[in-house]
Specification:
Blueprint lengths: L1 E6 L15 E8 L4 E11 L10 E16 L2 H4 L4 E17 L6 E17 L4 E12 L15 E12 L2
Antiparallel strand pairs: 1-8, 2-3, 3-4, 4-5, 5-6, 6-7, 7-8
Length: 166
């Protein structure tokens, strides 16, 4: 779930704070010690909502990030929940299509994500993961976004997911 969004993208600021369903997949390599890496891909359809007078016909934000994970070592947690913090950088692609093509936006931004969560297993191969992350852009995209001021895009993501171990 996405929530708490803020943006300077025109026509998006009215509904960006609304809660939205997210879809994604992550791949993580986590050592028994404390260090790990992760690739994370997420899609948030209708990120900007219908907007003022239903002028927004479709929108979405896609994030693709590479992350570093620091977890409590497995020797301490044994087979219980294993807390971790995660941070990384990657691509944030925002698009907003309107009834008036003049206000359409497609923007590629360098993004930062930072958060934390827990991971645990109920069997040798399957478990669950719960996480809270904050995403925000680091760069401005003057060429592809219709904005008020510089391009700003940020939001929180709360996830719960199935974990499969290979």
């Amino acid at each position: 779930m996405k929530f708490g969004g803020k943006t300077s993208i025109a026509l998006g600021e009215e509904t960006v704070g609304e809660k939205k369903v997210t879809f994604g997949v992550s791949s993580m390599l986590l050592s028994a010690n404390f260090l790990g890496i992760e690739g994370d891909l997420e899609q948030i359809p209708q990120f900007f909502g219908p907007g003022l007078g239903r002028t927004v016909s479709s929108s979405g934000v896609t994030t693709l990030t590479g992350n570093v994970i620091i977890a409590v070592p497995k020797a301490i947690t044994q087979e219980s929940l294993r807390p971790y913090v995660v941070a990384g950088v990657g691509l944030m692609h925002a698009r907003l299509s309107t009834q008036v093509d003049l206000l359409d936006t497609k923007s590629n931004l360098l993004g930062l994500d930072i958060g934390g969560g827990v991971i645990g297993f109920v069997s040798p191969r399957a478990g669950a993961r719960f996480e809270l992350r904050h995403f925000k852009n680091l760069t401005d995209d003057a060429s592809g976004a219709v904005t008020i001021g510089g391009t700003k895009l940020s939001f929180w993501r709360l996830t719960a997911g199935l974990v499969l171990r290979y």
